[in-house]
Amino acid sequence: MMGRSRFILSALAFGYAFLYIPLVFVVVYSFNDSRIATIWGGFSTRWYGELLRNDQVLDAAFLSLRIAMTSATAATILGTMAGLALARFGRFRGRTLFSGMISSPMVMPEVITGLSLLLLFVTLQQLTGWPGQRGFTTITIAHTTFSMAYVAVIVQSRLMSMDESLEEAAMDLGGKPLRVVLDITLPLIAPAMIAGWLLSFTLSLDDLVIASFVSGPGSNTLPMYIFSKVKLGVSPDINALATIIIGAITFGVLIAWFAMRRMRT
Amino acid sequence: MAPAQRRGVAGVTLMAGDTAFRTDQLWRRVAVAAPYLWLLVFFLAPFAIILKISLADPIIAQPPFTQTFDAEGDFAGSADNFRFLLTDKLYAVTYLRSVVMAAAATILCLALGFPMAYGIARSDATTRSLLLLLIVLPFWISFLLRVYAWMGLMNNYGVINNLLMWIGIIEQPIQLMYTDFAIFVGLAYSYLPFMILPLYATLERMDLDLIEAAQDLGASRTRAFWDITWPLARPGIIAGCLLVFIPAMGEYVIPYLLGGPEALLIGRVLFDEFFVNRDWPLASAVAIVLLLLLVVPIVLLQRNQAKREEPAT
After folding, report:
1. CA B94, CA B96: separation in Å to the nearest integer?
2. What is the DSSP letter of B172?
3. Is B36 in Cβ contact with A98 (below 8 Å)?
4. In the CATH scheme, what is the homologous superfamily, with its name and number, of domain A56-264?
5. What's the domain count of chain B?
6. Contact B257, B151 (CB under 8 A)
7. ipTM
8. Confidence bin at B219 (pLDDT 50/70/90)
9. Residue A113 in contact with residue B287, Cβ under 8 Å?
10. Where is average pLDDT lowest: A38-42, A56-60, A120-124, B291-295?
11. What DSSP letter does each residue of A90-113 carry, written as one string?
12. Bridge partners, B65 (sequence order)
């Protein structure tokens, strides 16, 4: 077995190095004093200071956070309904189309989703006058659409792995279906809903391509701002921004991981 | 659940005054209708609009395309955009390059991801959950920033070149950025977690006794792998490959940031056709053709997922 496991161990080592080394260098170079991002000029935190004084970054970050909160919440509500419908409602009219529409947005290339939504908004505006301006609302709608698919799949798979006996017992004891959903099903799928919300939140914060299509002049999300800067090459303040984002997400994910482990034991 | 469903079918013969029951029926209808309507309007309808605009002609106006149907409601569009796409060599080459790049990245992900997923699935519970966390973590970290990280590594005076020159392997920086190689690495790097997770899911469920039995019966390790592990892992392999291939086909950020200006992949061509040339009808036609290319893999993926969701055998 030795030869085999040595191969697997080296694949694991190489794979994790591949995944993490690029990120480590971004973090290291964010503390680089030199303006030329690839040459080491001593330790400094000056780029963090410049970041905090940059209004464009702060505005973009604030817009992104607002969109992420709103779209994650909407996606969790709609996605949970969809997940419940797929896992518990048996057959209903149009189920095939429904489950197809749930799973497609996740694999659809972003350029197609972005283009199609923009053309929809333009057409709607011609016909009805809404949306008058593209920005917060249109980006939120776009993000809700692809995020709800993820929530639905997470909720659905959680429901499939749970047997229905608890819900059936409650029903047998005279519980009305809606009551049963609120009192039994929802608490059981709460972890899936939280996971779905968090995933939607990060997906929204992360999206560049779809937001570029459906946003209008003057509404730049954080990824759009970052992209406009990194197009020109590596820059030290983006390293600092990346480090903050990587740090915050790693911290959040680790906390969630430990919380889940403690809940299980 | 069954009685409720039966009552639901006979919903018309409701007893009068059974308001609680009526609320429940209403709740069920809302739970299906709300996400259904949302997806019809914001996911399905846009495709009809793309199709309509792909048949129009570009004009300098707001919005920049002609009407597909004239005032009398007669069809006034044409398939010119599609004819152009099919006859212009540039587009055929671009579609082909996208397929090749996405396929190459998929193969690299599989070659690296399979032993990794296998190793994770075979480690003990605590290590396994930590290793899995480390696979998922990059997925949560911004995609854009992870691609950006490679810019710093592959620059002419970036980390890799500096390191190679410091060791003395090369004297002049080698061109890594703005090459097809950079796009290929970027694609594999970004989509590796998508490969590992479904592979892990199938490998973890696999019965190890089968391999042992095969080896006891005299099968070599290689033979046991190809005859047992590989076929049993097939649903995971298919899911992983498609989850890498499909989004990689339409990728925009990676070819833009890591590839050179002539590195044409279809996602980038679509984006530029739309934003730079402002040719909305042609961009729509490019999207339709890309979608047609992806219909087969997407349907395959959905059928594969449906099979995986069936109770484990």
Report:
1. 5
2. S
3. yes
4. MetI-like (1.10.3720.10)
5. 1
6. yes
7. 0.88
8. confident
9. no
10. A38-42
11. -S-TTHHHHHHHHHHHHHS-HHHH
12. B58
Of B118, B242, B298, the CB nearest to A104: B298
Instruction: Answer whether residue B107 shows pLDDT above 50.
Output: yes
Q: Is B69 helix (H, G, I), strand (E, B) or coil?
A: strand
Whether the CB-CB separation of A214 and A118 falls below 8 Å is answered with yes
The partner residue sitting opposite B50, judged by closest CB among A85, A119, A176, is A119
Q: Does residue B310 register a pLDDT over 70?
A: no
Residue in the block written with tokens 């934003």: B275
Q: Does B309 contact A249 at a Cβ distance shorter than 8 Å?
A: no
Q: What one-letter code names the amino acid at A41?
A: G
- The residue in chain B having the minimum alpha-carbon distance to the alpha carbon of residue A24 is B149
Helix axes B266-275, B280-309, angle to 10 degrees: 140
- Taking a contact as any Cβ pair under 8 Å apart, which residues of chain B between 218 and 277 contact chain A? 221, 242-243, 246-247, 249-253, 256-257, 267, 270-271, 274-275
Over residues A132-145, the mean pLDDT reads: 93
Q: How many CB atoms are closer than 10 A to CB B15?
A: 6
Q: Which domain holds residue B250?
A: 86-309
Give A-chain residues touching B208 at CB under 8 angstroms.
none
| Inside any domain, residue B217 | yes
Q: Is the pTM of this model over 0.90?
A: no
Alpha helices in chain B (DSSP H): 2-9, 19-39, 45-54, 80-87, 89-122, 125-140, 143-154, 159-167, 180-205, 208-216, 221-224, 230-232, 234-249, 253-258, 266-275, 280-309
Chain B residue closest in CA terms to A249:
B141
The answer to whether the Cβ–Cβ distance between A223 and B189 falls below 8 Å is no
d(CA A111, nearest CA chain B) in Å: 6
Q: Is A197 in contact with A73 (CB distance < 8 Å)?
A: yes
Pair A28, A20: CB distance under 8 Å: no
Measured in angstroms, the CA of A161 and the nearest CA of chain B are apart by 10
Domain at B285, CATH number: 1.10.3720.10
- Give just the sign of the alpha carbon dihedral B144, A196, A244, A20: negative
Determine contact: B284 vs chain A, CB below 8 A: yes
Q: What crossing angle do the helices spanning B19-39 and B2-9 adopt, rounded to 10°?
A: 80
**Any domain includes B274:** yes
Q: Which of A2, A116, A243, A263 to mutate to test binding with chain B, by most B CBs within 10 Å of its CB?
A: A116
* Nearest partner of B206 among B238, B186, B190, B228, judged by Cα: B228
Q: Are B67 and B304 in contact (CB under 8 A)?
A: no
pLDDT tens per residue, range B176-200: 888 889 999 999 999 999 999 999 9
